[in-house]
Amino acid sequence: MLSGARSLVHDALAGGRRWPASAAGSLRLGTSGRLRAMSNPFAILLEPVRIGPVTSPNRFYQVPHCNGMGWRMPEALAAMRGVKAEGGWGVVCTEEVEIHHTSDLSPYFEGRLWEREDSPALARMVEAVHAHGSLAAIELVHSGANAVNLYSRAASLAPRSMSVLGGSGYEPTQARAMTRQDFRDVRRWHRAAALRARDIGFDIVYCYAGHMLTLPMQLLSRRFNDRHDEYGGSLENRVRLLRELIEETREAVGARCGIAVRLAVDELIGKDGLTSDGEGRDVVEMLAELPDLWDVNISGWSNDSATSRFTKEGYQEQYCGFVKSVTSKPVVGVGRYTTPDAMVSAVRRGVLDLIGAARPSIADPFLPAKIRDGRWDEIRECIGCNICVSADFKLVPIRCTQNPTMGEEWRRGWHPERIAARSSDEQVLVIGGGPAGLECARALGQRGYQVVLAERRDEMGGRVAREARLPGLTEYRRVVDWRLDRIRALPNVALYPGSEVSVDDVLEFGAPHVIVATGCTWRRDGIGRNQWRPVPGVERAAVFTPDDILDGRLPTGRVLIYDNDGFYLGGVIAERLAQAGCTVTLVTPAPLVSYWTQYTLEQERVQARLRALGVRMHTQRTLLALDVGSARFADALRTEEVEDEHDAVVLLTDRIPSDGLYTSLCPLVDDGRLTTLRCIGDAEAPGIIAQAVFAGHLAAREFGTVPTGDTPFRVERWLGGAGATPFESR
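RESULT FIELD:
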């Protein structure tokens, strides 16, 4: 039954009535209607900023960020950057762009400007950005010891003979020590790339010394620079190459292009690295007036792009806040700024001149436009999960938990703010109010369809609403809140929490189209990646699953967590139980705890957090059997068995799709009582939150359309041949 509210459902279909907002979960009240009548309190963010010979139309600055597309997918990349410009970002940057084959970052797909023949791909991006009146910036880079050169097979360059830093981090090769001729060559290559960038039409050209990913920063570091020539020893010598690159880039293109320096002012490793109160500050002071713009952050990448689990909005200010006091040039910095209040504060307090963003610009490419237009309650705030970062590591187009259109702008033709209008007046029933169901209902509602969403729990949000109550995951709640806020603004979408739906309910309801998003449950039998049968003895053990923890049913005493999932949840549950006073042991078959968090730049922090909480951790152990109060494991090679005693065990193994309702509804399509039926999200295939949101959005986009081919998106292919455009679509 629909919570005893069947008449309300029929009313919703007949007249567009909606369930009261108070019943739709935790909602933030929109204020745009009241505030738009006032002067924009964030007007300072809309002011232009001079950057050498060019001017940004506002203070919104999309800093360089990787995307998994790079030189391989120039059309997709240009469309993605173009949407940022359309959304109001005054400056839109590339990712790191290789200037020479000795800086080959393969297998990763970054930008490439080795030769003039690489220009057309980058020109696509410049054209897309300029079409909306924004400035286009290029981050030129020689990666030094970070470049493994797997494709070019060139010897990597470094301050000294040393292990390469990039690739897997454990590449069995070394870089060679640079000669004086190498330094002259690097300067020549950088100048040539800057000239090519100018000719392409870029407005800002970077000299990049950050993240320990570049040769200039490797030279700055005493860890890697033990040279005894003019490029080693004193800080003045170690900064020499960066100074030369700035000066020579200005000489080459400074009349036409702004010159930016990206510098990591603190490595967060104490006296062994650059610090914001030591040599990091000294470098800025030495070069203060040379560039037209300072782009400052912290190093390495896992610090600069730390997740919301470990850092909060504006977290870099304590390190970068000094820069404006030592230079007259404009300063851009980052800190995962998602709220206009924090942005304005950073400007008014003299911390920044321009608000830098990578992840917030991914979550909402139209963030600046929404602030400009007084629609700040519509901002789709970044949750700081770093799924965007993982795409680069996985060599696939960028994706986002909050913004399912990210990376799909060209290949699927998706726009973050616009969607095709409905093709009929038919009504849709969505069953399940988790991330997939909410996004599907929201997007269908945006298209103009009459939608009813029924959720069996009293609270909307599914797994996200429950996970957000765990340590460090509060900001994940934004996935739910933003969608509920947007649904509240749609008179054609009705929400019915506390409504268990059966096959009979669907028949009586009468909607011709049903989309099932009923989620999944965690297995209790131990079947998973390394176990294809129920774990012997599991029926005798005190077994808990993540569902129990999320519903507030916690074990006590000595708790064993067996994490065969490998993402963030095992570590978060361990943290939760340790905080509750349990003695926690976390065991995983993987070589690292929370193995997949490597791709979200969190693994080391996860491990450190658990160690600080006293959680015992064992890797490369496979669960063999359970019994009352005990567990038996085999090591990775199955050469040794290990016993562990406990009071309870939490199993993170496979999940079971909750697709029973979908399966039961399938015959209704066959006999014509339903026109369409679709299963989405975890009910179709359990995965990460980003995939559930994407599945909901995809279902809404495809609803009422006819497939035109076996591949539902465009593919970029190299066509080659004399006179051919390098990349064209087919």
